[in-house]
Q: What sequence folds into this?
């Protein structure tokens, strides 16, 4: 009977220790794993034009894989350019030009691209910007250039895609 109690206590201690190790391993994996979740932001330019902006991995096999940033105008008659690159800059003067991938918004069957939407290749954001410096985006539209400032959290999301 005493031997049985001894084995039961040993089993409990091992189970408790393994549970703790599993929790630590999961925490470490979460810290080093790249951001993989899609994000959606509500953005506004200097003139007050509003956009829903999505950061996501390109899901369609007929298009090149990679991260995309899609802007969709929320009214105001804004038409986004479907050929100009998205210009990105930081406070140090570093700049990036993200290729326009608006053709990926619709199937490759000739469906027209929505005038108020544009999509860009985030993989061209290399080297990744510092998470400590704010980013400024410049979109081309029928109303001229649109300047959008990202929050620190949005800048960090782009930085973490590496």
A:
């Amino acid at each position: 009977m005493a031997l049985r109690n001894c084995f039961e206590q040993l089993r409990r201690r091992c189970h408790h220790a393994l549970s703790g190790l599993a929790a630590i391993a999961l925490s470490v994996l979460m810290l080093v794993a790249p951001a993989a979740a899609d994000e959606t932001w509500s953005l506004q330019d200097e003139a007050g034009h509003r956009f829903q902006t999505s950061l996501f991995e390109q899901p369609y096999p007929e298009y090149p894989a990679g991260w995309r940033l899609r802007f969709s105008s929320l009214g105001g008659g804004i038409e986004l350019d479907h050929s100009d690159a998205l210009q990105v800059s930081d406070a140090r003067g570093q700049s990036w030009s993200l290729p326009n991938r608006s053709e990926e918004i619709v199937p490759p069957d000739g469906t027209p691209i929505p005038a108020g939407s544009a999509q860009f290749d985030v993989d061209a954001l290399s080297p990744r910007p510092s998470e400590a410096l704010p980013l400024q985006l410049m979109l081309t539209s029928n109303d001229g250039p649109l300047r959008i400032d990202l929050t620190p959290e949005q800048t960090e999301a782009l930085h973490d895609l590496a």
The chain has two domains: 1-33, 39-159.
